[in-house]
């Protein structure tokens, strides 16, 4: 078997989960053994599923340590899906590489940039070593143009550059925006 790495990136709402789920479901139709992981930090909608904003879903295993993936994958596994890959530590890079070297098709989805517009966690390195990369866009909520960035809002206002990536206690929300309308105030 020839293994390979396939990556789906883009901002929030660009359809990464939707596309990941679509590809995984098609692999299942082709009678491939599929297993899906996501970081336990992401508990959007449902702890045990990968769920897209439009409601499609697929069963997934929550893990916090990338190396836990080895406990679930065996010779019979054909396809390994990983969603929200940006939240894993850099150990995920070697796990993905090792699985592909062992002949698995590794399908990865995640944010390529954080709310500041900077490379997010392990995603850029995974893009570099992947055979295939698809960079999706959402629709900018300000102008309708293709949106490649995620706007972070804290209590309704653009989050500042200096704000922590994880901020406890504030009401925060996210929007898809184009480069022109993406705001990251510096103080
Ligand atoms: P991601 O995993 O990239 O966050 P999802 O697959 O969960 O994306 O959700 C994609 C869906 O989000 C779209 O099919 C659409 O129904 C919805 N959506 C909401 N806001 C937007 C937006 N600004 N641009 C594009 N799609 C949006």
Strand order of the largest sheet: 5-2-6-7-1-8
Query: What is the total tally of β strands?
Result: 13
User: What is the CATH homology-level superfamily of the largest domain?
Assistant: P-loop containing nucleotide triphosphate hydrolases
- CATH fold descriptor of the largest domain: Rossmann fold
Order of helices and strands: EHEEEEHEHEHEEEEEE
Q: Which hetero ligands occur in this complex?
A: adenosine-5'-diphosphate
What CATH architecture of the largest domain do you see?
3-Layer(aba) Sandwich
CATH level-1 class of the largest domain: Alpha Beta
Number of helices: 4
Poorly predicted runs: none
Task: Report how far apart the termini are.
Answer: 53 Å
**Assembly context of the chains:** single chain
Radius of gyration: 17 Å
Helix content: 10-25%
Mean pLDDT: 93
Give the percentage of residues in beta strands: 25-35%
Q: In total, how many domains does the architecture comprise?
A: 2
Q: Tell me, what's the shape?
A: elongated
Please give a structural write-up:
With 187 residues, the protein is an alpha/beta fold. It has two domains: 4-136, 3-Layer(aba) Sandwich (Rossmann fold), CATH 3.40.50.300; 138-187, Wheat Germ Agglutinin (Isolectin 2), domain 1 (2-Layer Sandwich). 19% of the residues lie in helices and 29% in strands. The chain is built from four helices and 13 strands. A six-stranded parallel beta sheet has the order 5-2-6-7-1-8, sandwiched between helices. Strand 11 (149-154) and strand 12 (157-158) form a beta hairpin. It is elongated and about 50 Å long. The mean pLDDT is 93. It binds adenosine-5'-diphosphate (ADP). The site of adenosine-5'-diphosphate has 15 residues, from helix 1 and strand 9. Adenosine-5'-diphosphate is lined by residues 10, 12-18, 52-54, 138-139, 141, 176. Substrate binds at residues 166-169, 174.
